[in-house]
Amino acid sequence: MATTTDGTPPATPDEPAHRLRTEVERLRQDATRQRKLAHRRAEFWARTDIALGFPAALLAAVSGAAALASADARVPAALGTLVSAGFAAGAAFLRSGRRRLANKWSRQAWAAVEARATVLLARDGIGAADLAGLFELRQAALAAYDGDENPWPPCPPPPASPGPT
Questions:
Q1: How far apart are CA 60 and CA 48, in angstroms?
Q2: pTM score, two decimals?
Q3: Which of 10, 56, 131, 133 could pair with 88 as two cysteines, CB 3.0-4.6 Å apart?
């Protein structure tokens, strides 16, 4: 059996420290991939929000102006108003603004996981408690996309109310 210069056996891949480091590296790679995916999704929903919202506003303004301009323009103005309402209904149905915001929250949460994993990998020893903390951040990142009352990014606690005076 081979030994190092100080007489201890060399580190093997089965050693717990090596397994912890490998798991942190895997979590960092996953967080990087998820962060990039959330970024692309946020950009997509921002474009969708603009693509549906801008024509709706423009058509509504033009239709209103045309309807007020002359009696002959009322029918085309009504059609423009219907198309504008269709764009607005599509935007409301897809909730692109909400989805964009949720993906931004998700991107921030995955960036926090990635940053924490990078810090852990820069250290010499990674313990089980470090990995547990990283998994907690990962759970928060997985939940960051869900729900209207999103806990990510965390908000500061409300100020303490003064006691009775």
A1: 18
A2: 0.67
A3: 56
As a whole number of angstroms, the distance between CA 76 and CA 124 comes to 72
- Tell me the C-alpha distance between 138 and 30, whole Å: 10
Rounded Cα–Cα distance for residues 73 and 67 (Å): 6
Distance (Å, whole) CA 43 – CA 33: 16
| CB-based contact 87:50 (threshold 8 Å) | no
**Residue 59 is encoded by which pair of tokens?**
């058509």
Measured CA to CA in angstroms, residue 26 lies from 31, 80, 117, 118 at distances of: 9, 53, 9, 11
Q: Which 8-state DSSP code applies to residue 153?
A: S
The model's pLDDT over 111-138, given as tens digits with 9 standing for 90+, comes to 999 999 999 999 888 888 998 999 999 9
Q: Which structure tokens are listed for 120?
A: 């852990």
**Chain segment 45-55, per-residue pLDDT in tens:** 989 888 888 88
**Rounded Cα gap, residues 160 and 24, in angstroms:** 38
CA distance between the termini of the chain: 76
At 57, which amino acid appears?
A
